[in-house]
Hints:
The complex is a heterodimer of chains A (337) and B (502). Chain A is α/β, with parallel strands linked by helices and 337 residues long. Helices cover 38% and strands 17% of the residues of chain A. The radius of gyration of chain A is 22 Å and the shape is globular. The model of chain A is unreliable at 19-32 (pLDDT under 50). Helix content of chain B is 75%, strand content 1%. Chain B has a two-stranded antiparallel sheet. The N and C termini of chain B lie far apart (60 Å). The model of chain B has no long low-confidence stretch (mean pLDDT 88). The interface between A and B is large, with 71 and 73 residues.
Amino acid sequence: xxxxxxxxxxxxxxxxxxxxxxxxxxxxxSSGGNADYPKRPMEFIAxxxxxxxxDLTIRTVAxxxxxxxxxxxxxxxxxxxxxxxxxxxxxxxxxxxxxxxISVYSPPLILINLNGSTDFSYxxxxxxxxxxxxYGVFVVAKDSKFQTINDVMEALKKDPKSVxxxxxxxxxxxxxxxxxxxxxxxxxxxxxxxxxxxxQESGASQILGGHIDLFSTxxxxxxxxxxxxxxxxxxxxxxxRVGTGVVAEIPTVKEQGIDATFVxxxxxxxxxxxxxxxVKYWTDVLAKMVETEEWKEARERxxxxxxxxxxxxxxxxxxxxxxxxxxxxxxxxxxxK
Amino acid sequence: xxxxxxxxxxxxxxxxxxxxxxxxxxxxxxxIVGMLPGLGPATGVAVLLPLTFTMGPEASxxxxxxxxxxxxxxxxxxxxLINTPGDGAAIAATFDGYPMAQNxxxxxxxxxxxxxxxxxxxLAAIVMVFVAQPVAKFALKFGPAEYFMLMVFALSATASMAxxxxxxxxxSMVLGLMIxxxxxxxxxxxxxxxxxxxxxxxxxxxxxxxxxxxxxGEVFKAFKMIKEGKKKMQTKFGKIWITKxxxxxxxxxxxRSAPLGFFIGALPGAGGTMASLIAYxxxxxxxxxxxxxxxxxxxxxxxxxxxxxxASVGALIPMLTLGIPGxxxxxxxxxxxxxxxxxxxxxxxxxxxxxxxxxxxxxFIGNMILAIVNIPLAGVLVRVLSIPPKILYPIILGLAxxxxxxxxxxxxDFYLLVIFGVMGYFMxxxxxxxxxxILAVIVGNSMEQSFRQALTISNGSYGIxxxxxISIILFIxxxxxxxxxFVRDKIKKKKSVAGLNN
Lengths: 337, 502
C-alpha cells in the first residue's frame, strides 16, 4: 500500500510540476467579439530562458498591468527559448490571427533574420509598442592602457588585430554589432578583420582577468563592477548621458566625436495578423501603463530608459533599424538575405 | 575576527522562523526536482521565479540556494536506486552507488550519499566564509587557455577511468564531442549539423542525453531482463545507516573532495558534473581498493557526493562577489536578484551584508536540515527496489518523457530522447562506458569554444596553452591521469613478481 501511495505521489508531483513548467499553454481560437475583450487569460511569452532580459521585461510588464488593474485577466508567462528567439517566432506563425498571445523581443529579432538563422522576420509579427531601452557599453580593466573610446579606435586603425573585443552574444549578434557600428562611424576600415571573441556568459570574468582587451556588453550587466571600480567604462551608446551615480559619469560615444548610437530596445509583439480590436486594446493599455508610477518605479529599479513608441511609430522604427543592421552585417560578410 | 561577527549577524537572519521555513521548503523542493530526471536545480529555481516578487530578497535567495544544494542531495537518489541520475552532477553516483544497491547495500549507499553531501556542503560553507574573495580572484586567472586545459584534463581523466578500456572510453568521449558540435557556433555565428531544424540551433541539451542514455537505456535493459525473468527485487530492508568500516574508508575521500569540488564550482562555467567526476577519478587513483571501484566501493560514492554539493556552494561565489553567473542555476538566481532591484557584484557584501551573510549562514542550516530530512526519506525511497519491474519501468519511462518536455517545451527533444536512448542501449551492450559521453556533451562545446577563443586572442599561436603555470600544471595532470593506471599496474606486477621470488 505504502509503495502504491508513494508512486502516486511521485507521479502527481511530476505531473503538477510539468504543468507549471509548461506554463499551462492553452490553444484558443480568436473570438469575433471585441466589447468584452480580453475575456480569457493571455499567454505572455519570453522567447528566452527564465531570469534573462526578455523574461525579466515581460514578467515586469505582467506584474505592473496586474498591480495597476489595467488588465484583469491572468497573464501567465511562458518561456519558449531556442534559436535566439527563432523558436518562438516560428510558434507565433502557427498562432496567426490569435488575439491572446503577446511576446517580447529586442534587436535579435531583426538580427536572427538578417544572419539567416530564421526565415521569419519582424514583418511576421504585429508590433504593439516599444517600451524600454538599454544601451551598449564598452568596458576595460581598471589598469587598461585605453583611456577613451578613441584610443581603441586609433589602435584598431593601425592594426585591427591589436585589440581583442569580447562579448557575451554570438558573433554577428548584439554585443558584436554594437561595437562594429561605433567602429564604422569612427572610420575604422576592414571591420571584418577585427577579432571578436564570444563568451557565453562569463565575458565579465574574462575582462576582469585581463584575458581580453575590451568587453562589449549591456549597461545593466556590469554596473556592480563599475561601482566597485574593478572595471572602467570608456563609453556607452545612448544619445545622451543616462542613469545616476557611476553610470551618469560614463561619456557617450557621440560626445567623444563618433557620430553613432545603438539602442537595445525592448518591445511587445503579437502574432502575425493579430485582430484589430486586440491591437487597439493593447496599444491603449500599454500607452496607459507607461504613464503609471508602478511602471516608472520598475524602470528605475532595473535601470531601463524610457523608450515608449506606439504601434505605428514602432513599425517605422523597425524598418529603419533593419536597414542599419543590414549595412553592418553586409560589411562583415554575415548578411544572408 | 570581523568575519565571525558578520557570520553571527547572518545567523540571526537565517534563523528567523520564516527563513527557516523557506530554507526547508527550498531544500525539500530541491531534493524532489533533483530526483526527477530532467528536472534539475535550474528548473526548480525557475519555477520559483514568479514567487520571488512577493518573497523579498533574503527569503528568495535563501530558498533558491536551498533548491540548488537540495538538488545535489536528491540527484543521487535515483542514481543509486535505478541507475538514472537526476542531473549531470549525479552521474558519478551511478558508478558505485548503483552496484552497491545491486549488491543489496542500497541502505548504506543512500545514507552515505546524504552524509557525504552534508559534510561536503558544510565544509564548503566554512571555506566560503573565509576565502570567498581570494578564491574569486584566483578564478579570474582562468582565461580561455586554462579552461581548455581544465576540460581536457576532466575529459581524459573520465575517459581513461575504465582501465584496459581506454579505446572504449575514448570512443564514448568522441561521440559526446560530436553531439556537442550541434548548434550555432558562437565564434562564427554559423549553424552546424542543425539540418534546418530550428530547435537544434541552441544545441542539444545535455539533460536530454542524460535521460536518454541512463533512464531509457535502463528501461531497455530491464525490458530484456524481465522477459528472461532475471530481474530480482529486494523485499527486506535494513536501517538507513553506514558501518564503521564504510566510514573509515570514506572519511578521507569526503574531506579531500569537498575543497576540490568547492574550487571547481567557483570557476564560472565548470560546475558540479566536472567537480564530481574529477573527485571520483582522483579517489580511484589514490585508493588502495581501486579494483573495487565501479563494483560498489563506498568511497567511490562518497567522494563525488561530497564534491558536487561543495561545488554548488562554490558556484555562488562568482555571482555573489563579482555579479557573474557561474552556472545555469546561478544565472536564474541572478535574474531573480535583478528583479528585486539588487545588483549582485563586488559591492553586495558591503551594501547588503545581511543578505550575503544570511545566505551563507542559511547554507549551514540548510545542509543540516537536508541531512536530517534525507535519511528518513531514504527509508521510504529505498522501497522503490521492491516495486515489480513491470510497474517501475513504465513509470520511469513516463517520467523520462515528462522530464524531457520540461527542459524546453520542445517536441524535437522527444525524437532526440529516443535516438540517444537506443544509442545508450547499444553502448551498454558493447560495454562502452557512458560517463565520458555525458561529460563530453556537457563540456564539449565550451571546450571547443575556449580552444578557439584562446587562439583568437593569441593570433593563432599555440603557445598560449603553455603560457601560464595553471595550464602547465593541468597539462601534466592530464598526462598523469592517462598514464597512471598503466604505471601502477607495472609496479604492482613487479612487486608481486618480487614477492614470488622471495
